[in-house]
Amino acid sequence: MLTLEKINVSYGSIRALHGISLEVKKGEIVALIGANGAGKSTTLRTISGLLKPSNKDSRITFKDVQIQGMLPHKIVEMGLSHVPEGRRVFPEMSVYENLLMGAHTRKGKPGQADFDRVYHHFPRLKERIKQLAGTLSGGEQQMLAMGRALMARPDLLILDEPSMGLAPMLVEEIFHIIEDINVAGTTILLVEQNAHLALEISNRAYVLETGEIVLEGLAQDLATNEDIRKSYLGE
User: Fold this and answer.
1) Which residues pair with 7 in a beta bridge?
2) Tens digits of per-residue pLDDT, 28-66?
3) What φ, ψ does residue 13 adopt, rounded to 5°?
4) Residue 188's beta-bridge partner residues?
5) Which has the closest alpha carbon to 190: 179, 62, 230?
6) Which sequence spans correspond to the domains of the chain?
7) Helix axes 168-183, 138-150, angle to 10 degrees
8) What is the 3-state secondary structure (H, E, C) of the chain?
9) Given this model, what pLDDT does residue 233 score?
């Protein structure tokens, strides 16, 4: 479904990504793990069109279409939604209005089935549908950011640090919901510092260090890799 080939990205004279190549197959949950500053968010922002590769031989292919250089809203229209780090909800708008914004690239007004899908995964949002997004708790804002992305009916959902700043109980809940979204038919690329949970729910994973993929494989194999356990699992 998604393939990255030889992706370089630079911020001025500083190269953030060095020839990144990875693949996400339809139906998978794929994790991208690494320390702060490794280039994880840069990778996701490049996929969704917010950043452009700096090399001409790079390729980003989504559903057999090359999307590098494509405008972000066009990529969303193709079926790729990005939930950014830090949630980025519209604080002065209601939960309902935030959800509507998630469907703005679609033709026609979203139907009740679209809202019901979000409420199925996030019943708390239905209870707070008229509440201003800025008054929600951190966990509820994360749910809203994910629900807003689902309103675009994505085939691929990319998530950037969905557990950041959340209490452990809420983290468990968010990860169960991610699994449910995947079971319901949405492919997922997950960036997450909680490597233990990320590997637990993923099919495959890539390890990113200073802008380079240094390891890849089945998530269950990486979870038992001694170097990964020491560096990312705190064992």
Assistant:
1) 20
2) 999 999 888 889 999 999 999 999 998 889 999 999 999
3) -90, -5
4) 29, 157
5) 179
6) 2-88+152-231
7) 10
8) CEEEEEEEEEECCEEEEEEEEEEECCCCEEEEECCCCCCHHHHHHHHCCCCCCCCCCCEEEECCEECCCCCHHHHHHHCEEEECCCCCCCCCCEHHHHHHHHCCCCCCCCCHHHHHHHHHHCHHHHHCCCCEHHHCCHHHHHHHHHHHHHCCCCCEEEEECCCCCCCHHHHHHHHHHHHHHHHCCCEEEEECCCHHHHHHHCCEEEEEECCEEEEEEEHHHHHCCHHHHHHCCCC
9) 58
Identity of the amino acid at 75: I
Would you give the distance in Å from CA 145 to the centre of its chain?
11
Cα separation, 150 vs 17, in Å, equals: 28
Interatomic CA distance for residues 15 and 171, integer angstroms: 32
End-to-end CA distance of the chain: 34
Q: Pick from 163, 74, 152: which is nearest to 114 by CA?
A: 152
- So what's the pLDDT on residue 98? 93
Positions of the chain with pLDDT lower than 70, given as ranges: 108, 230, 232-235
CATH class of the domain comprising 2-88+152-231: alpha beta
CA distance 173 to 122: 10
